[in-house]
């Protein structure tokens, strides 16, 4: 019996032996370079597959996606599967389900069988907790919090917490958020569902609520149903360093006293600049001194100007929503270094942009008719948040509840 094993092995064709390989899509990949990393070496197959337009979608879009293949030991591709870029939210899916596409390639006697298959993925819930030591972003990174979720957290609490100037060592946060995973891969990070932040001993809490029959009610609320949306964001930037405040100063351009009608924030060229409120773009162009700038008018007599930009993301007449990127920061016009000059106007008069909170009323609370739905729909994320941090969460009894809506910057 033992003597037959070598004979059987000798009879196996090299082409019958399969190698299972995986590779990550890289920046500047081509179909051929990806296939070669998957150990496909057959020249004819490389030519055929590289010429196919449907396979080029594998190497476009976000890098890092995993592609798997079965390849014979002589370098011939047998089949291949890879996720295509993009994730589509399913309309009407209350659970946040999404659809993603997989490209499937199979070698057949008749040629290549190439199909795009749509697959549904349900979101998973993730919990993270952290403590601030040096900066919020450092704490978020240490907690393994995705960058997009960290940015959402800042947006949610920006009406109450000044993340640039009021954070202290020992401040804590807990978050519950969605993540989309399939076949061992993280496809995308989703929405922040609930969060708590203790800033200087004051506890702020938020939950996401999207009523089934009232899209206008969608937003973040305190657990008691008060809206966390404010008329204005405190800043158009994700982070900043104040270099010149509002008021009298010596002009860095003309070296003489002038009244500075806004604030300067040092920021690298190309940083996204967001409009602080809903409004309409009335100017996007060049101005003497301002360089490239955007002016947005807002309801009730308010207006904002964003200056020294490098590029525009909007055009005159366009309606913009709070938090929408209107431009990229730059160093144009009368500027001594990369920064954003930001102005805030009330009925045509410039006022100190650092006092925006005084002009930012609360949003509408959860309507009485949706109160029971609000409590039911947010129960899971509120419960998970309460368990975050192993008893040392931002919801611990040692923190004092804050009067949300007041500014503590």
From TrEMBL:
> What name has this protein been given in UniProt?
Murein DD-endopeptidase MepM
Annotated M23ase beta-sheet core domain residues = 259-353
Which Pfam family, just one, is annotated for this protein? Csd3_N2
Q: Which cofactor does it need?
A: Zn(2+)
Q: Name one GO biological process term.
A: proteolysis
Mention any one GO cellular component term assigned to this protein in its UniProt record.
Answer: cell envelope
Domain Csd3-like second N-terminal as annotated: residue spans: 126-237
What is the source species? mine drainage metagenome
Name the PANTHER family on file. CELL DIVISION PROTEIN YTFB, PEPTIDASE-RELATED
Q: Where in the cell is it found?
A: Cell envelope
InterPro entries in the cross-refs: Cell_wall_metabolism_enzyme, Csd3_N2, Dup_hybrid_motif, M23ase_b-sheet_dom
Q: Which CDD domains match?
A: M23_peptidase (cd12797)
- The main location class comes to other
Q: State the UniProt keywords alphabetically.
A: Hydrolase, Metal-binding, Metalloprotease, Protease, Zinc
EC number, UniProt record? 3.4.24.-
GO molecular function per UniProt: metal ion binding; metalloendopeptidase activity
